[in-house]
User: What shape does this take?
Amino acid sequence: MADARPNVLLIHSHDLGRYLGCYGVDTETPSIDALAADGAVFDRHFAAAPQCSPSRGSLMTGRAPHVNGLMGLAHGDWELDADERILPHYLRDAGYETHLFGLQHITQDTDRLEYDHVHSEGNLYPGVSPTVHQANRARNVASVVASFLDADAYTDPFFASIGFFECHRVEEENGRFGFDAGYYDADDPDDVRPLPYLPDRRGIRHDLGEMRGMIVAIDEAIETILEALDAADIEDETLVIFTTEHGIAFPRAKGTCYDAGIEAALVLRYPGVIEGGERYAELLSNIDVLPTILDFVGIDVPDRISGRSFAGLVADEYGGYDERDRVFAEMTWHDMYNPIRAVRTNRYKYVRRFWPLPTVYLPADVFSSESGREVRETDTVPSRQYEELYDLRDAPQEDDNVVNEPRYQDVRVDLSEQLHEWMVETDDPILDGPVVPGDYDKIQSWPHRST
Assistant: This one.
């Protein structure tokens, strides 16, 4: 075990999933790849939700969205429950100095997060305008972090949450949502490898080419931060975590509980403790990250945290590792009511839907994109099935629903029971009926309701 408590850098980005070179994608991410080569990469790490605030809330609390209360977007008046504790609270109580750089998007009240130092503004909604959150663009956030490290403006040990705006879509002048190609350099659509779960169409390639400009910005920002760590001579005493909140902002990804929607990158580097160059195929949920950090810094994991530490998986001195045989994911509110619960095992994915909506839900930014235009005629037909079961060995893209096939009925019953038991054990409010939005009282007071 490390002799002293490490500094902790938690770097996170929007809507990126695992669209990175170190995960086999044909995009150049040399700095992230180098971080992965020096650390541990987790190939089956999944978010607790396929959307921004609920996923980030789970990362920061170690608890599912319907448990911590953040079942919708923070700028939509959803909030963590009043008694929720987040990662900087635990670390502050243990003597850590806590810092927030860039985006956080789990509350509209930054003071509630109780960071010792907030280094940039604009930490709320990621924005639909390209000019809304300049402070949260990766290169700007990285510059502030580098200046902070260069100035030795911290007390050991310290924790820093570092959030990037990219790769969130922005609204363009034509009303469509793209990746701000006027600010970032885009790749030629002809040079882009198609996504395996979507048809190979020009609009999808166009969006992928644009998104790569944002990915370059993320990668360069991470290079800036890692170089600053090295220059400050604290690289060997710092746990660096790079992760993403959920899948990319494309159809059948963001806003869905398919793997493309809940997949999340996860890379950990801790020199002398975590062996570099290792890859792990164990199932992980992003609720597991918080208890893992607590283990690394020597804090007992509270019983209220439902995530499981995987520190023992990557470093023997942290004890055993209780391997998962399943992970859960959920969605309740985004830009509309879309209640979904899902369970994923090594081989199967079971998805249960609770509301009539189109076959595949497209969040507003995806619906109004070039990619969304390519699939609207098929994906937005209102013929949703309320149960889906996928044999991931035979249908890794989740394009063959076998929920009604006789040979899968034992699996269907087993997974549906597991999902229901989890919902009961965690007191999922959806069991009592539809969940009202966070701004329900405001809606009730609208003048039109009295006419």
Observations:
- The first strand starts at residue 7 and ends at 13.
- Confidence is low (pLDDT under 50) at residues 123-130.
- The chain has two domains: 7-318, 327-432.
